[in-house]
Amino acid sequence: MINAIVLAAGKGTRMKTDLPKCAFPILEKPMINYIMDALDKTKVEKRIVVVGYKKEVFYDLLKNNCVFATQENQLGTADAVKAALNYLDDGITLIIPGDTPLINYEKINSLIETELALKKDITILTTFLDNPTGYGRIIRENGKIVRIAEEKDAYEDEKLIKEVNTGIMVVDNKFLKEAIHKIDNNNFKKEYYLTDLLKFTTDIASIILDDNDILYGINDLYALSRVEDMVRRNILKKHMLNGVNIINPESVTIYPDVVIEDGVTILQGSFISGNTIIKKGAIIGPNSELHNANVLENAKVKHSVVYDSRIGKGATVGPFAHIRMNAIIGEGNRIGNFVEVKNSILGTTTKASHLSYLGDSEIGNNVNIGCGSITVNYDGKKKSKTVIGNNVFVGCNSNLIAPIEIKDNAFIAAGSTITDNVDDNDLAIARSRQINKKGYAKKYK
Ligand code: UD1
Ligand code: MG
Fold this sequence. Notes:
The chain is an alpha/beta fold. It is built from eight helices and 41 strands. The protein folds into two domains: 2-215, Alpha-Beta Complex (Spore Coat Polysaccharide Biosynthesis Protein SpsA, Chain A), CATH 3.90.550.10; 243-428, 3 Solenoid (UDP N-Acetylglucosamine Acyltransferase, domain 1), CATH 2.160.10. The chain is elongated. Residues 7-10, 21-22, 50, 71, 74-77, 79-80, 97-100, 135-136, 148, 150, 164-167, 193-195, 217, 219 line the site of uridine-diphosphate-N-acetylglucosamine (UD1).
């Protein structure tokens, strides 16, 4: 059996915040979930996550995706592994810290393969860093790894060593179960260091990581921001290689679960998050924010915000539109500047080109919402619905006081405040009649 122990019990004192370190989000997704997602693609068969500080947070994040072991007091990484021992099945165990989210499944698999082939007590993943400060240094004698010197315990000459411990290793369970109890805490931090396992065997293999970025351990908020930037760049690269044209990628952020088809263009300053899906030929940006949006083929969203809503095929949104709360913008719609659409369903080729609010409404095909017209959906106590049929013309600056229904082909005269339903083909005018007073202007001036 191939087991994995993920270490996530620490508080992350250096983060200087209350949230447990391994639960910190990187582009919305908690650090630990990056590791679990990588493990999903490996040969690991059983996953044990060691939790301690604010463990409920992890129960929530990981649900039934793993076995939880509890480390009551955070006495060090070896003590954390001890907490998981009872859950291990015979075989080998991958041990991975919960604070190295960039690790990829290929590396984990090659570490496991090496252990399966060589059957060593320990197979460890190391790497070379120009600035190794903070990491455990790999001490070799005649080329063979003999121990790991932690930053605070390393001698001055050992601190110059650039080969470091990634924190990721695969161990033979029989060896682990014996040796772990021999580890003491006679060190600078008075902690039980997992790295001291190496003191109890010479049967050690190592793999050297060639891409340093993926080992990056997050210990403080600065490191978190560095990793977030790396994750962001990786996501952009993946989309670009898949045929998404991203202009000025330095200014664009796309979150991990966003799906974008080839042939989409993302212009500068765009921020796309949640479970957004963008279909072929769509153009997003410049400067648009999309969250849980579903943008269909060839739609355009310019300088606008779309939350939890759908933009139909070939529709154009913006500049400066706000589409939110389950709004469905129909095929070929034109939603122009300073238009807000909330919780409304619009049919095909409908237009609201300027300065409108459409809330809690159902609007048919081919409707024209004139400049400045609004659905008056709130009376201070409750929200009410506006229903507009097909081919309706709503003149500029009209108020449609909900609940109200305007039927097919009706015409609302500009400047009307409509309080009663309007029937098919009717014209509604609801404004006071104009009076022109002969010569009064001259007299007045
Ligand atoms: C550890 C390694 C170091 C390595 C580095 C790589 C040890 C002693 N040192 O140092 O050699 O270079 O990772 O990133 O292992 N944790 C617990 N319980 C505890 C303590 C820690 O679950 O009692 C968890 C933490 O939540 C964290 C992981 O173990 O996810 C690593 O702990 P951390 O304090 O970050 O160790 P480093 O100082 O980074
Ligand atoms: Mg760390």
